[in-house]
Design goal:
The complex is a heterodimer of chains A (590) and B (452). Chain A is built from 14 helices and 18 strands. Chain A has 590 residues and is of the alpha+beta class. In chain A, the strands form four sheets. Chain A has a six-stranded antiparallel sheet, with helices on both faces. A five-stranded antiparallel sheet of chain A has the order 2-1-5-4-3. With 452 residues, chain B is α+β, with helices and mostly antiparallel strands. Chain B has a seven-stranded mixed sheet with strand order 10-11-12-1-13-21-14. In chain B, strands 16-20-15-19-17-18 form a six-stranded mixed sheet, with helices on both faces. Chain B has a four-stranded antiparallel sheet with strand order 4-5-7-6, covered by helices on one side. Chain B is globular and about 70 Å long. The chains are: A alpha+beta (590), B alpha+beta (452). The interface between A and B is medium-sized, with 13 and 16 residues.
């Protein structure tokens, strides 16, 4: 990743992080405020419920008191104090009293706690009223589970004792605590109240009531009610009604306990989370808008800053790439005096130093080449010149001291002089030929044919040296290449000649050709004495030779031809095992 | 001197009493109110107890049977003066009362009676000749006289307008179905002219309306629940019959209570005593048998005490479906009794819900035991309860007990109470001696003259 991209990313991340932190902070504050408002509303409804509960309890107590002082109850109390009476006459009394007092429940209970008359379940006479022992003496109202023929329900009850003799008669009456009770509450908008009648040991969805009766989707409340039943403490939960979180409601569950602190019911005050969720969505939208704009500004700003900051660095990198490619004239413009400016100046000094060093090296190499050329020329020319000098001196000496032998010495001397002159001409020709290396004239060329032509040239020489065996492994379908067959012929002739020279005691020469993708390969191997690693390294240097009478130009010519064809040559050699020259040539001209 | 004065005072009070009780008065109209509102003067099929008793009481004014049964289950002569049986009860020969006429003046001959009975019993061969009536059957009929005494075998024919014509003490003068029945004294009744000139029967009035009308003196005779007499006497006289009805729980064939252990547990769970004392106001007798003790004398062998512990033991390991129980909504006492039984069942661990909707798993029913003859009542009860007909051939304990035991031991029926029927008479009614089996016997009644 480029420095500019990194810089851009850092700018963008910083802006996004700031927006996220601010948004989360705002959302958290908002949520806390909403929860506090919810709690306030729930507490207000709970307080109202308790107030209504108290008022209704007082009303129930008043009605039960009125029933207790009624003439019929006083008569029954008197009769049960007179002795055993016909309890069959009381069966309907409780219902009449309940109708008179507008009570949902009313029972007359004797001192043993047995029901004498029940308004809500007339058939229950004689059965014990379980609330009597604990409710006696209770001045106010209390919650009680009431059994009915149709099932259990929850009621707000009060009890009064009628004492007209030794045996008290208890009047216990009450009203249902159900949806009718809930409908009397003044519930704020966006809030609803549910009542769970804790009548069974297990969760019963039909016991959860709202204003219209059994609440819809009651099973969603089971975990909340169970939590409260386990802990007997207030509990809170969010009920999700659909995938849309705006449909969810926050519920605050409060226990409603009976006289012995047993859980009789649960009041659930719920608030819609739609206002909160919609506000959250607005905040998130605004945050995204601000964040997006911030990111855009950050991108533009970072582009400007990055361009301003990274321009010297980019120029420096470009100049470095040029230097690496060999352009030592690359320069970096120094625009500032800071660290980047110092870096650019140092770079420019470095390139200047490199350029001077290169020029010094080239000059030294040229001098060395001239010296080598002069040494070779001197060496090459010195050998024929010495016989020439000796022959001429013999001729002079023979003319002066033995004229009679001069004729004979002259013939022999002229013969020697001609031979040495020819030798000089040959040396000069080779130097001339190396200097005149032409550019390849390319045409479709079959490398196998060129190789076979070369081998035919050396056929007679090889035949004389019968101890040399030539093996050819030419790929039959070797593709044509674009090359100059004459230059290739000269190069391959040098390789074969070197191989023959490397086998003075005989051996084997192996010639191979093969295709390799978009190239063709050719190798010439001999089983001679091989070369050292140092010899291999200097083998293609002009005028370097390992032969006693070599010019050192053969392999230089081969490398020149191969290079001019876009190929490359390599040598592998192991001492006392032989040498292999490997040439790779492209099929198409480059 | 003091002794003479005491004797004179006692004689004077005896004379006064005798004059008030022994001087019947002819004439007057007896006003009667009934609950049911029948559209015909016949015993309706599947009649409830109220409809049954109302129909029987109206029929008894119009028509006679060949014989009647007294409270001890003994046959009493009515249209038939004598009878004898042959061929081990397969043939009965009855001698009819001579000179009896229907209300239309036609003779109630043996031939006419044979036609009427033959139409009612197609499995009988009934022949009449002179005053002799012969009834034959391929099977023995040991209880034929009790059968002939049943209200459904009243000798009754129809006139051209389909009005009932009998030989009873009163004849129909006006019948407005469901509203009113007017009867006039049969001047030529074989038992002698009744004291009353007419009887007006108002139909379709509730027990409450009847009680108010009686209290206000607007009627002379009503039905009522079998209550103990008011402490202050009041203006009413309540006559209560022997227990002639059976209240029982019946499991229909499609009941979910197929496990006999559930039915037995329910039978053990029902605490009859509180129901009898409180809901039935002390009337009736708790029972676990079909026939009342006054018929058989052995009803104590069927235990009636509740045994919750035993019920729970019986119920253990049994399949306990939630059951529903229905009752006759026309019966004013049935709902509370049903709810009490459901409470008792809950104590034993049986879920029993009282409901009038849908097919019930158990029904609280009240049936009439129509005859004082035990064998006949047992057969009629089995038929009404949907039980197989018992194999009973006589009225001995050896005959009755095994048959009754076989009917109840599978707990397909759980007998609960034997109940009486009761009637209230106004202050004008004199010489009213209702039958102990539920009949009214108004032919001997006369009305005290209106003092106003």
């Amino acid at each position: 990743m480029s420095f500019r991209k990194k810089l851009l990313l850092i700018f963008a991340l910083t802006v996004v992080l700031c927006v996220v932190v601010i948004s989360v902070s705002v959302l958290s504050t908002m949520r806390n405020s909403f929860e506090r408002a919810n709690d306030d509303r729930a507490n207000a409804v709970a307080a109202q419920f308790r107030s209504e509960f108290q008022r209704r309890g007082d009303e129930v107590a008043r009605k039960v008191e009125a029933a207790a002082v009624s003439e019929s109850v006083q008569r029954i109390a008197l009769e049960i104090n007179r002795g055993p009476s016909d309890s069959g006459g009381y069966v309907s009394e409780a219902r009449s009293l309940a109708d008179q007092q507008h009570l949902d429940f009313l029972e007359l209970v004797d001192r043993q706690g047995a029901i004498l008359s029940s308004a809500q379940w007339q058939a229950k006479f004689g059965y014990p009223e379980p609330a009597i022992p604990s409710a006696i003496g209770s001045a106010g109202a209390f919650l009680k589970r009431e059994e009915l023929p149709s099932g259990s329900t929850l009621g707000l009850f009060a009890v009064r004792a009628v004492r007209v003799g030794e045996q008290p008669l208890y009047v216990i009456g009450g009203e249902r605590l159900d949806q009718g009770f809930l409908s009397t509450l003044d519930i704020p908008a966006g809030t609803r109240v549910l009542l769970y009648q804790n009548l069974n040991a297990n969760w019963n969805p039909k016991s959860l009531l709202d204003l219209n009766g059994p609440a819809a989707g009651a099973d969603k409340f089971a975990p909340l009610v169970d939590q409260l039943r386990r802990s007997a403490q207030e509990a809170r939960s969010v009920i999700h009604w659909s995938a849309d979180s705006a449909d969810a409601e926050s519920f605050h569950a409060m226990p409603l306990n009976g006289p012995n602190q047993q859980l009789m019911g649960v009041l659930l005050v719920g608030s819609s989370r739609r206002p909160l969720v919609e506000l959250q969505r607005q905040v998130v939208s605004a945050a995204m808008l601000v964040g997006g704009a911030g990111i855009l500004v950050a991108v533009l700003a970072s582009l400007w800053f990055a361009a301003r900051i990274t321009r010297p660095v980019v120029s420096l990198a470009e100049a470095a790439r040029r230097v690496a490619a060999g352009d030592l004239y690359a320069k970096v413009e120094v625009e500032s005096s800071d660290e980047l400016g110092e870096l650019a100046s140092a770079f420019n000094r470095m390139t200047e130093d490199l350029l001077q060093q290169k020029e010094r090296t080239l000059q030294a190499e040229r001098v060395a080449a001239w010296r080598e050329l002069a040494r070779r020329l001197a060496h090459e020319l010195k050998n024929p010149l010495f016989p020439l000098q000796v022959t001429v001196e013999n001729l002079v000496r023979a003319k002066e001291k033995a004229p009679e032998m001069f004729e004979e010495v002259f013939r022999e001397g002229t013969s020697t002089l001609l031979a040495e002159v020819n030798n000089l001409k040959t040396i000069i020709g080779r130097f001339s030929e190396f200097a005149r290396m032409p550019q390849p004239q390319r045409k479709p060329t079959q490398l196998n044919e060129v190789m076979r032509s070369v081998l035919r040239v050396f056929q007679a020489q090889l035949r004389e040296k019968s101890q040399i065996m030539v093996h050819t492994e030419l790929e039959p379908d070797l593709p044509m290449i674009s090359a100059d067959p004459d230059l290739l012929h000269r190069a391959l002739s040098n390789l074969v000649l070197n191989a023959i020279d490397a086998l003075p005691q005989g051996g084997e020469i192996t010639v191979r050709t093969q295709s390799a993708g978009d190239r063709v390969e050719l190798s010439v191997s001999d089983t001679g004495s091989g070369l050292t690693q140092e010899e291999c390294a200097r083998l293609f240097t002009p005028y370097y030779t390992t032969k006693e009478h070599g010019t050192g130009l053969g392999l230089a010519i081969v490398q020149s031809v191969v290079s001019d064809h876009g190929g490359k040559i390599s040598v592998e050699s192991t001492k006392d095992s032989g040498t292999t020259f490997r040439i790779e040539l492209p099929r198409e001209a480059r | 001197m003091r002794r003479i004065a005491f004797l004179l005072l006692a004689a004077a009070s005896l004379l006064g009493t005798a004059r008030g009780e022994t001087r019947p008065r002819y004439g007057g109209t007896l006003r009667v109110i009934l609950q049911s509102a029948p559209n015909s003067l016949e015993i309706p099929a599947n009649a409830g107890p109220v409809e049954y008793w109302d129909s029987v009481r109206m029929l008894a004014l119009i028509a006679d049977n060949l014989v009647t049964m007294d409270a001890l289950g003994r046959p009493q002569s009515q249209l038939a003066l004598a009878w004898q049986t042959e061929l081990n009860g397969k043939r009965w020969q009855l001698t009819l009362r001579h000179g009896v006429k229907f209300h239309d003046g036609s003779a109630a001959s043996a031939v006419t009676v044979a036609q009427i009975l033959g139409a009612l019993h197609t499995d009988w061969s009934v022949h009449g000749a002179g005053d002799s009536l012969t009834i034959e059957s391929e099977t023995a009929m040991p209880s034929l006289l009790a059968e002939l005494a049943l209200p459904r075998n009243a000798i009754l024919k129809r006139n051209a307008s389909a009005a009932p014509v009998g030989t009873g003490p009163f004849r129909v003068t006006d019948f407005q179905p469901g509203k009113l029945l007017k009867l006039a004294a049969n001047e030529e009744s074989w038992a002698g002219r009744p004291f009353l000139d007419t009887i007006e029967v108002e139909l379709g009035r509730s027990l409450r309306d009847q009680a108010i009308a009686l209290e206000l003196g607007k009627t002379d005779l009503t039905e009522t629940l079998p209550l103990p007499p008011a402490p202050n006497g009041g203006t009413q006289r309540i006559r209560t019959s022997l227990p002639v009805e059976l209240m029982a729980l019946v499991f229909p064939a499609n009941s979910r209570a197929q496990d006999v252990r559930v039915r037995e547990a329910l039978a053990l769970a029902v605490d009859r005593k509180p129901i009898q004392q409180v809901l039935l106001k002390g009337a009736g007798e708790p029972t676990a048998g079909i026939l009342p003790n006054w018929m058989t004398g052995y009803s104590a062998v069927f235990p009636v005490q509740a045994n919750l512990q035993r019920a729970k033991v019986v119920l253990a390991d049994s399949r306990q479906p939630a059951l529903t129980m229905s009752y006759d909504p026309r019966d004013p006492q049935a709902q509370l009794v049903a709810e009490r039984i459901a409470l008792n069942a809950r104590d034993a661990g049986i879920t029993l819900r009282v409901s009038l909707s849908g097919a019930a798993d158990v029904s609280l029913v009240r049936i009439v035991l129509p005859s004082s003859d035990p064998a006949t009542s047992l057969r009629e009860a089995a038929r009404e309860l949907g039980l197989p007909q018992p194999a009973v051939h006589g009225n001995s304990v050896d005959d009755l007990y095994p048959a009754e035991r076989s009917l109840v031991e599978g707990h397909s029926v759980i007998p609960l109470f034997h109940l009486p029927v009761a009637s209230s008479a106004g202050a004008r009614l004199r010489n009213w001696q209702p039958g102990r089996s539920g009949g009214w016997n108004l032919s001997e009644v006369w009305l005290e003259a209106d003092s106003r």
